[in-house]
Task: structure prediction
Amino acid sequence: MRIIKAADYEEMSRKAADLIAAQILMKPDCVLGLATGGTPVGTYRCLIEKYQRGDLDFSQVSSVNLDEYRGIDRENPQSYWYFMHDNLFHHVNISPERINVPDGRNLDAAAECRRYDRVIENYGGIDLQLLGLGLDGHIGFNEPGPAFVMDTHCVDLEESTIDANQRFFESREQVPRQAYTMGIRAIMQARKVLMIVNGKNKAEIVRKAFFGPVVPEVPASVLQMHPDFILIGDEEAFSEIEA
Ligand code: PGA
Result:
């Protein structure tokens, strides 16, 4: 595990974007595992700036997103499909046929999860996986549980996750209760894993996840065992550890 400390959100975002840009430069047809949420918005903004300056070419890049709400249309502004287009894909030259997000419109959970695992397998896995960190230690929507779940699967969201995501919806009732998420295998098999964390509210879970035991009750803790895991955080998120 490599820990990179940033002064603030902007610096965290710049450093993460630099590593993603390096990955694309090294391997123009790389497979990026991408994440949604508040944390990566700044990273995507930096990537768009690099693209607009002519420093980055996404034309050969493929993307596989971590997760999607179950039972949501792509046109719904709260869908992760929409989020990714709004925050990144519409602003760079990635090919639409190389964009992959679990299909929230498909209510057949078993079929959709199998399809998504095959998509990842057919690519030969992920070169670089970007992750945020949930307040309960989730990665993607791999929520705390009695065991790490390996395959893409359908999850019931934790109450704390519904609370955290309610800010994006008009009311708590509108937050979907289920989601499809990439499992721990695809994340752990990514050749490089990059997590970004910022803010005081993440400080406690950063300590638990990366300075505590590796347990499925804290899903992100499994990353301690990844051979190329980079954690970039701001001072607030690292305030409970010695980084
Ligand atoms: P956030 O979410 O980036 O909105 O804090 C992180 C996550 O739940 O993975």
The chain has one domain: 11-129+140-197. The helical segments are 9-26, 41-52, 80-87, 109-123, 159-165, 184-189, 203-211. The longest strand covers residues 192-197. The two ends are 12 Å apart (CA to CA).
